[in-house]
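== Sequence, structure tokens ==
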Amino acid sequence: MQTKLTLRLDEELIREAKALARRRGTSVSKLVAGYFRALTQHPGEAPEEEPLPPLTRSLIGALAGAEVSEEDHHAYLEEKHQ
């Protein structure tokens, strides 16, 4: 059963939380629930997996079958940051 919880927070913190939630494709309520879940998790207990945000989920399998090695990635980064 879900119920409503009222929190009194600094306006800037609320703005930042809303921006973070928007970037992650979720809600502030889900962010807070995830934080509370992490706080109440017992040591050694496996964390509950949360669904991936839509953007992240859309990238699954994007490189399937690609022939890219770690060396290729390092070479790309070196060229990019020259």
Q: What stands out?
A: The radius of gyration is 19 Å. The helical segments are 11-24, 28-40, 54-58, 70-80.
